[in-house]
Design goal:
By secondary structure, the protein is an alpha+beta fold. The chain has one domain. It contains 3 helices and 4 strands, in the order αββββαα. A hairpin with a 2-residue loop joins β3 and β4. α2 packs antiparallel against α3.
């Protein structure tokens, strides 16, 4: 975002610089062309120059403007490409985060399922062992069966959640 602002400011400054005045080098002397007037060291020399020199200076000015315009166009394309690349990078980062979140959720669901299955097995073994030794009253048997039923429901719920992910 900051780079985009910097590029826009640079382009604006270039345009302002182009619009105000142009420096042209002719016969190893630097002239500043502003509008239709030619200046040398701040003094208007338009009238003192020969027609050939004026044409040469103005044609050089035209060439410079074309080159600058071409450079600006290239900068604009580069900026556009940079924005597109930045956008693609953000999209890929977003997709990666989403994928990581999905993996994390899946791992959590698998862990939950494993833990619930483990609890169910432990309680089932405990129930079977107590039942074999006839240490359960009818009330305790009903309570255990309810507990086992709830654990089985939790297992089914955890399995369905894992399938949804």
């Amino acid at each position: 975002m900051k780079s985009l602002k910097i590029i826009i400011i640079m382009l604006f400054l270039c345009v302002v610089n182009i619009g105000l005045a142009q420096e042209v080098e002719h016969n190893r002397e630097t002239y500043v062309v502003s509008g239709g007037a030619v200046f040398k060291a701040g003094i208007n020399v338009t009238e003192t120059l020969s027609e050939v020199d004026k044409k040469s200076i103005f044609s050089q000015l035209k060439t410079n403007k074309k080159r600058i315009k071409k450079n600006e166009k290239a900068r604009g394309k580069a900026a556009k490409q940079a924005r597109a690349t930045e956008k693609k990078l953000k999209q890929s980062e977003k997709a990666l985060k989403k994928e990581q979140k999905l993996i994390k959720a899946k791992e959590k669901a698998q862990s939950k399922l494993k833990s619930v299955q483990s609890d169910l097995q432990k309680q089932q073994k405990k129930f079977d062992r107590l039942k074999r030794k006839d240490k359960l009253t009818p009330d305790a048997t009903m309570k255990f069966e309810k507990k086992l039923l709830k654990l089985k429901e939790k297992v089914l719920k955890a399995q369905s959640k894992l399938k949804r992910i």
